[in-house]
Amino acid sequence: MMNxxxxxxxxxxxxxxxxxDFFSKDTERANRYSIQxxxxxxxxxxxxxxxxxxxxxxxxxxxCNLQEKIEAMFTGEKINKTENRAVLHTxxxxxxxxxxFLDGEDVMPKVREVREKIKTFTNAVHSGEWxxxxxxxxxxxxxxxxxxxxxxxxxxxxxxxxxxQDGIKVYFASNIDADDILQILAKCNPETTLFLIxxxxxxxxxxxTNANTAKRWFLNSISDEKAIAKHFVALSTNEKxxxxxxxxxxxxxxxxxxxxGRYSLWSAIGLSISLAIGFDNFEDLLKGAYEIDRHFRxxxxxxxxxxxxxxxxxWNRNLWGYNSNAIIPYSHLLSDFPLYLQQLDxxxxxxxxxxxxxxxxxxxxxxxxxxxxxxxxxxxxQYLHQGTDVIPVDFIGVLQPxxxxxxxxxxxxxxxxxxxxxxxxxxxxxxxIKELKIANYPDDEIESIIPHKVFVxxxxxxxxxxxxxxPKTLGMLLSIFEHKVFVQGVLWNVNSFDQWGVELGKQLxxxxxxxxxxxxPTNNHDSSTNKLINMLKTLF
Length: 540
Ligand code: F6P
Description:
Elements: H1 5-14, H2 19-25, H3 29-32, E1 34-37, E2 40-43, H4 51-63, H5 66-74, E3 101-102, E4 105-106, H6 108-127, E5 140-144, H7 151-159, E6 169-173, H8 178-185, E7 193-198, H9 205-221, H10 228-231, E8 232-236, H11 239-245, E9 252-254, H12 271-277, H13 279-298, H14 305-319, E10 324-330, H15 337-349, E11 367-369, H16 381-386, E12 393-400, H17 406-425, H18 429-438, H19 443-453, E13 461-468, H20 471-492, H21 503-516, H22 527-537
The structure holds 6-O-phosphono-beta-D-fructofuranose.
């Protein structure tokens, strides 16, 4: 049971106001409800919030022992209870030069060792010292992975387009659908291609199937098993499986079970990023995340971006009942951010069982979705403005572009700010009438069109504004979202670090695959499933 009665009382009181009223009553509201942290500005003023509500939310966080739980995560307590694991992705970007003990062993030397190995390898590939088996430079990198071994690296590599190394192309293959890997292989030359097999477990069906296809494709042109050592590396915690696949130990980049898949881009899984943008930039990404780690760990909740952001999400989800959250980057380079966040947030907090194994009687998690602006304005924004559900929106903008087309950029940001304003202020009946009259709309038709043109407004949004999209600010942004997910997991008392819900589908797919490949028609399932399987059997 959640003790949110006081919050409910505040909600009742605040409901009678329009969001815009808060701004007319308090001209300092934007200053009061925003935080500038280095090159990131967080504006949370356009929410149904006041100081009393925020204080109550902070009290709620305290009643959940949030500060102790933050410490427990950073210091390596085994907070992932169902897997008996620590949660230490923050160690991967820890530049404090202090030991961090887990089961009596300092994990930091190993972290630094792998980081050094990433550096040496990246530099060797870029300088041409690392050559393909026929003596040619590596020009193409193909990362084969899925979920956390794909989404983070793919998103970051695209986002940091301006930092991409000349002469290196990076592709990401993830789907079990062969059309994914085949289209990528069609662009590759085996002599100059390096495959990164990225899989924490090295057992994931999609990744292993794609890796085998890539290996077959490679050996078809360079029929020498020894050549694999120059074209395949593994990023994994499972040394044995890597060896069995044929990847020699020196080509393995290790990480550990205390790094969750969706938190792994900071680990060896980030090798594709380092190869795409250079090691120094990769390190800046880590340093940005480290900056936020310290902010999150040591800043009072009242000034703490991830904590406030998480509490606003909690307020929207558990008091107002909004079950969806749109993430709209007004940056083409950040287009894939919603995809990455879907795994981060929904795989972490989509849980109906709490840490004690009880079924919760309150909502947890939310549907995360979105698309970059302004494209999304011309598709689903109608729903955001006039749909029957209220969907809080988080906008992400970048102040300084890295191109010179300022006209585009001014329009881009004008649109972002306009959308946030429009969601809040809406358009009243009076304004609609005024507009129609100016446009000489026939008087006898005005009344019937009014309801369609009125926007009720009062729809909440946040804005994150980055000064510039650099490796460092991107690292900061990602770390803010990671910690927001963590805080919400604490507020909901769920384990944000397991993902048992993805297992059933994998098990059933194996059984169906077996049924598909047996001679007899199957009768092992319900009639719908049997019919579909038997229909497919005629094709194979
Ligand atoms: O199926 C979900 C999942 O386990 C994710 O949590 C993970 O990021 C992804 O699969 C890939 O796992 P791996 O890195 O072990 O191949």
